[in-house]
Amino acid sequence: MTTVRDSVIDFLRDKGMTVMFGNPGSTELPLYRHWPEDFRYILGLQESAVLSMADGYAQASGKAAVINLHSAAGLGHAMGSLVSAYKNQTPLIVTAGQQARSLLLAEPFLGAVDPTAMPKPYVKWACEPASAAETPQAIARAYAIAMTPPKGPVFVSIPVDDWDQPSGLVQPLDFLGSPAPGKKAIAEILPRINAAKKPVMVLGPEVDRAGGWSAAIELAEKLACPVWTSPMSSRCSFPESHPQFAGFLRADETSVFETLAPHDLVLVIGAPAFTYHFENPAPNPLAADLLQFTNDATIASYTKKGAIILGDVASAMEMLLPGVEKRPSFKGVLRAAPQPAPILSLSAAAIVDLLQALRPENALIAEEAPSARPAIQQRLRIDTPGSFFATASGGLGFAGSAAVGAALAHPDKRTIALLGDGSALYTIQALWTAAKENLPVTYIIINNGGYEALIGIARRWQTPSVGTDLSGLDFVNLAEGFGMKARRATTCAEMEKALGEAFAFQGPSLIDAIVED
Predict the structure, then answer these.
(1) Which of 426, 425, 443 is nearest to 484 (CA)?
(2) Does 452 participate in catalysis according to the annotation?
(3) What's the alpha-carbon Rg for the chain, to the nearest Å?
(4) pLDDT tens by residue, 298-354
(5) Cβ(511)–Cβ(419) under 8 Å?
(6) 390 φ, ψ (degrees, to nearest 5)
(7) pLDDT computed for residue 175 by the predictor
(8) 76, 211, 247, 394: which one is catalytic?
(9) Which residues contact 498 (CB under 8 A, 6 or more apart)?
(10) Is 47 a catalytic residue?
(11) Distance set, CA 443 to CA 27, 28, 98, 163, 265 (Å)
(12) All domains of the chain, ordered by start, with CATH?
């Protein structure tokens, strides 16, 4: 007899999802009966960390990931990371155990009340199958929805007594390619592009997700125009050492409009360019013609003018290239090389300079150091696709655990988690998983003893910064308690030595970098 468990395992194997992330409980145990030898279970010590590990794995591998959570409480713990995964457009199949169907009317212990409502609106689809026999098909449908652009997480609640019930095997669907813009739409906008005197490009994370780096570089060089990154971009979509790379837009309307004002045409490609963090209305509307390319109609709807071209952004750029007239080559450099940071004391800028100089050539970086982000954007150069990951939601707790997932996806590369001390604490349990799996992850904690980014915002708003002191934390002892090698750096010389040793060490380690800024 084929059971629900047999059918689900067979489907996951067919789709290459043989790595499962979880923190199991009683309502999930029947899934693990006869657990297959070709599957790998990655244990996280808290569900928020578990979900971000899967997020990092899915982004770094380019495949969907499957997560197993424990009923309503486990899903509740994971909700912050689920928000980030939704904003990251990461394809995840999030499952949670439910109590036995015969008990549900009485709201049993460890049961979930209205489980499909709980994760909304931060999933693309949520389902608790009406019968056990429908569970494998629900998983298959969840996968299809998660992988359909714009990709994102989905949720399936599975009663504990479903796994041993009879069910047929699921015939999986194959998704071959992403929808491209219509040829007519491309033909209509080409004259507008070729007529522009001063075009500019704004690129966002969708370009990297779509594999559009080469097309973006070729298009930028044909247009001989500046290239900006959208505010708070969670991926890098253009080589930052390229002479046409202009930098990072700030997350307020006035700043964005002022930056784009000198141009008569703005090409926004795969970028939530008009999503802001701070209220700062522009005094005048944006005068330039605006063309926005995206596979996400919701993001497109934020745009107040111009034309929207829906579809895969890499395909869109490739379709544009033959018809775009080549302009004289771009002259000059938009971003000067940063001056070396003073070495008198250890600072965020000095750490980033050392990281730029010493990191392995093919390293992956998961970043969540909000107060150090200006130094990171000015001094660190990301020049390889699929090598930089941050959170698109702004919520903390992503990068420290996402680094574990990225390292699982690419065990042949060094993964670097660049974290603030406040950020690191949100999913500090990920250190245990990195140590247990002996992953090539280097954790760098920029430890300034507080929520420095929040202190800066409070200063800007002329309001007291309450609850921002994080003094007394000892990340070396924390890491060693989780089974990880760790050391502290308080000077540039100590930091340089620590980085050299960490990058030479095959397994995971942590550097607690004490800074004054």
Answers:
(1) 443
(2) no
(3) 24
(4) 888 888 889 999 999 999 999 999 999 999 998 888 888 888 887 778 999 999 999
(5) no
(6) -140, 180
(7) 78
(8) 394
(9) 487, 489, 511, 513
(10) yes
(11) 34, 32, 36, 39, 42
(12) 4-162 (3.40.50.970), 183-323 (3.40.50.1220), 348-514 (3.40.50.970)
**CA–CA separation, 94 vs 76, rounded Å?**
12
- Residue 517's pLDDT band (cuts 50, 70, 90): low
Question: 70, 77, 242, 410: which one is catalytic?
Answer: 70
Q: Is 167 a catalytic residue?
A: no
Of the listed 47, 128, 367, 368, which one is catalytic? 47
Q: Catalytic residue, from 7, 22, 28, 401: name it.
A: 28
Cis peptide leading into 159, omega within 30 of 0?
Answer: no
- pLDDT of res. 452: 74
Residue (of 433, 432, 440, 399) closest to 418 by Cα position: 399
pLDDT exceeds cutoff 70 at 33? yes
Active site residue 26: yes
Q: How far apart are CA 126 and CA 474, in angstroms?
A: 41
**Is the predicted pLDDT of residue 457 greater than 80, yes or no?**
no
Q: What is the pLDDT of residue 516?
A: 79
Q: At what angle do helices 492-504 and 348-358 cross, to 10 degrees?
A: 40
| Count of other CB atoms within 10 angstroms of residue 406 | 31
Q: 175-232 pLDDT, tens per residue? A: 788 899 999 999 999 999 999 999 999 999 999 999 999 999 999 999 999 999 998 8
| Residue of 214, 277, 325, 481 with catalytic role | 277
- Cβ atoms of 268 and 202 within 8 Å: the answer is yes
User: Does 214 qualify as catalytic in the annotation?
Assistant: no
List the beta bridge partners of residue 446. Answer: 420, 513
- On whether the CB atoms of residues 499 and 358 are closer than 8 A, the answer is yes
**Band (111; pLDDT cuts 50, 70, 90):** confident
